[in-house]
Amino acid sequence: MKIKKAMIFAAGFGKRLLPLTLKTPKPLLELNNKTLLENCILFLEDCGIKEIIINVHYLAEQIIEFIDKKKFKSKIYISHEKEKILGTGGGLNYANQKFKNFFKDSFITINPDTLWNIQYINAYKIMEEFHYKEKKAQFILLLVSKNNCFDENLKGDFSLKNSKQNELIRGIGHLEKKDINEFTYTGLQIVRSNYPTKIFKKSKPKIYSLNHYWNTTNYQDFCKYGYFGGQKFYHVSNLETFQKLKKIKLSLY
To answer: N or C: which end of the chain has fewer CB within 10 A?
Structure first.
C-alpha cells in the first residue's frame, strides 16, 4: 500500500524571517531560484503523493495565486483560514471539517521550510513500510540527529525509546521526551487515518499545535513513533540561517 495524500502547513507569519516576510509569505521565499513551497510539493510528488491540502492565512492570496499558476502533477486544495491562524492542530482540524473525505486514508503532514531533497525518499519509504506493518502506530515522525543540523542552534526535540520494532527496522522507536534530547523533528510525519477523528473528539480549543499531543502524557492511547534518518538537516529557521543557505550549493528539486 502507498500513502497518496498530504497536508502542507503554510499559514504561518514567518516572523523570524523579517523583514523578508513583510511582503512575501515564508513558503514563497526562494533558494536556488525555487520557492520553498514548490520544492516541498515536488518532494511529495516524488514520494507518490497524488492529493495535497495546503493551509494558508498570512498573505494567503500570494500562495493561492502561485498554486494557480503552477501546473503540478498532484491535485491541490486550499484550506483558507481567513479569520485567524489556527496552528498546526487547529489547521488540521479545520481542514478535516472542510474536506471530510480527505482524511479517511492515512496521510502525511509536512512543513515547507525544510529543504526536502531526494535523500529523504529512502527514509520516507522505510517509514511508510513501517506504518502499514505496525497497525498500532498512530503516527511516526521523521527525525535527524541534532548534530546533523545545519543550524547549530536547533536543539533536540525527542529521544527514541528501545522497542521490539527496533529489532525489525533500524532507527525506529517510541517517542519520548527527556531533559536532553538527541533527535530533531524534520517537519514530516505519517498519520494513521483514524487519528484525526480520535484527537478532534478530545480537542476543545480551535487554535492549538500538534505539539500538544507529542509533548504530553495525557494521550497514551496515541502510539507515537519516530524514525531516525541520517540526512543532513537544512531548515529555514531564521533570517541568519536563510542568508547562510543562500551562499552554499544545495541539492533541491
So the answer is: N
